[in-house]
Amino acid sequence: MALTTSSTNQSVLDAQLELWHTSLAYIKSMALKCALELRIADAIHSHGGAATLPQILTKITLHPSKIPCLRRLLRVLTTTGVFSAQQHLDGGGEQVVYGLTLASQLLVGPSNLSPMTSAMLHSVTVSPFLGLSAWFQRELPAPSLFEMEHGHTPWDFTPQNPDAGGLSNESMVSDSSFIMNIVVKECGDIFNGVTSLVDVAGGLGGAAQAIATAFPHVACSVLDLPHVVANAPASTNVKYIAGDMFESVPPANSVFLKWILHDWSDDECVKILKNCKKAIPPRHAGGKVIILDMVVGAGLPNQKHKETQVLFDLFMMSINGTERDEQEWEKIIFQAGFSDYKITPVLGVRSIIEVYP
Ligand SMILES: C[S@@+](CC[C@H](N)C(=O)[O-])C[C@H]1O[C@@H](n2cnc3c(N)ncnc32)[C@H](O)[C@@H]1O
């Protein structure tokens, strides 16, 4: 072992802990995945937000032989902050009462984040990462990590795998309902002067619907691929248009791009942005593109912020996407012919980027 002579036993044990902590990090995710599949948060929620193990057991399906193991799963989930645990004295002795933390409150109730969390933890999403080092050893242009594992790009894979496609679309709707509620409250003024808006690659229209509801004077439409638009909700205040953003973008006063450009390479982003620029009027006539995406390093990131942003970058690398820092954003924005931009980092690890022609 290449240890320096000054290493103390304690520091060496701390170093081993570091390796173990990182090596076992996937068990955290798998415990969360299991909790979602067993619907443990729903079970606690249905008991008013706090439940003992026997109460949880009345709501979830488990083989009786595995009941003792549930306590151990819950110990991981409480230690990692998904649920809380409090000791309570009752007639028969001490009982642990499990509660929802703010994080698990986001997994229950109407329009919750469990579809997005389930999609991130789905075997289709996770399995490509086992081939990461093999992917690094292949020459570019190589298939993405996702393509190496599944034989298709995500865009070709989902139409052929309706379950995965459905979950992916639903996950986006759940994320959009969540984040757009905050966008409207924290930075609703970005929609000042907007009269019509096209949500490019807007999926089933979660974001466009939120904008149309909060700002009824804005005529909202969604552009997405035909197989996605075919499943769009029938009666909404949003118009759905089937098309290809690499071909053209329907005209509007402004274009909205939520969680799109991080899916694509710089060259592809420049193509999409050029089509967006053609779709909108000049700046003096109110034209702008509103991007909701991550700006790596933006805001006042703490360690968890930083780690989440760089983990997201590797996550996106699996489909040949990328999370960009400000310089990288500036490069594609200016290459697409825009003259100015403004970053507002008020959405946790994500930001709003207003881009002007
Ligand atoms: C990550 S999802 C984002 C959906 C939505 N913007 C949201 O955040 O809820 C990416 C979307 O891009 C769409 N998409 C992929 N290629 C496209 C293309 N060439 N033209 C239009 N939409 C496309 C997909 O169908 C999918 O709905």
TrEMBL record:
Lineage, please? Answer: Eukaryota, Viridiplantae, Streptophyta, Embryophyta, Tracheophyta
- List, for all copies, the residue spans of the domain called O-methyltransferase C-terminal: 132-339
Question: Which keywords appear in this protein's UniProt record, sorted alphabetically?
Answer: Methyltransferase, S-adenosyl-L-methionine, Transferase
SUPFAM superfamilies, per this entry?
S-adenosyl-L-methionine-dependent methyltransferases, Winged helix' DNA-binding domain
Q: Which domain of life is it from?
A: Eukaryota
The subunit structure is:
Homodimer.
A biological process from GO: methylation
Query: Which terms does the record give in the GO molecular function aspect?
Result: acetylserotonin O-methyltransferase activity
Q: Which family does it belong to?
A: Belongs to the class I-like SAM-binding methyltransferase superfamily. Cation-independent O-methyltransferase family.
Its recorded name reads: O-methyltransferase ZRP4
Q: Which residues form the signal peptide?
A: none
InterPro entries reported in the protein's UniProt record = COMT-like, COMT_C, COMT_dimerisation, SAM-dependent_MTases_sf, WH-like_DNA-bd_sf, WH_DNA-bd_sf
Record PANTHER family: O-METHYLTRANSFERASE (PTHR11746)
Task: Give every O-methyltransferase dimerisation domain span.
Answer: 20-108
- Where does the record place the catalytic residues? H262
